[in-house]
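We now fix the convention by which a protein and its fold are recorded. The integers have meaning only within a learned vocabulary of local backbone shapes. A complete example follows; check for yourself that the lines match position by position.
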Amino acid sequence: MPEGPEIWRAADQISNTIANKEITNLYFAFDKLKKFEEELTGQKVTSVTPRGKAIITSFDSGLNLYSHNQLYGKWIMSENGDEPDTNRSLRVAIHTKEGAAFLYSASEIEMLKSEEVESHDYIKKLGPDVVHPDTSYEEMLERYQDENFRNRKLATLLLDQGFLSGVGNYLRSEILFCAKVDPDFRPRDCSDQQIEDLAHYSLELSRRSYKTKGIVVEPELVEALKREGASRKDYRFYAYNRTGKPCYKCGQEIQEIKKGGRKIYFCQQRQKG
């Protein structure tokens, strides 16, 4: 499932392709949305806003397209308006004279009035967005110190969009790795320094991934690994999906465990030593 950084980049791409341009044609796969095809033709997209792992595409009529990619959804852009060659199921297509945006395989798609956006069942429960430039370190710190969350294991808490929005499986492993926190810990088990580091890296790694198109590792180490011939797969993450490979900080092998049916990756010496 795409995480916050990927959703923000998708929103940027949609905006760059179709925002503030007259819509020439729309397509909705779901019958409940068919009535909006004619209504929105001739209008313009005024904004494209990431909300956790969802995107709100707003039209100048005051209507808003809510889309959540879930596991398999994906937005694909086309500069010439031609539909991409893919086996995915087309759900939404928004055409302008200058290009088109296509949404494939997503299952959660709704049309909302402006006054309905903030009260949407998913959006109203979202925690602070780890990619949003206005989210502050102090806000992150308060979240980790909040009594409502202190007794929950971080391995599951970090996937709760009501705690922090935008964090998913790879960011979870990377945040815990950089903060030197045992995946079995709860916030209450952490030292003050670990809590501060969790708050810091929740923002830093998420924003770095957004800016670098998915690379979490610090730039200096990335450049050193590139000089050694490492591939993008090798220098993208510190721990995620690197089972059996040496930790970049101590040299021990990265390990994996399953939490809630999903793998989490960690360094035994760094996080459990």
About this structure: The first strand starts at residue 23 and ends at 28. Residues 192-212 form the longest helix (21 residues).
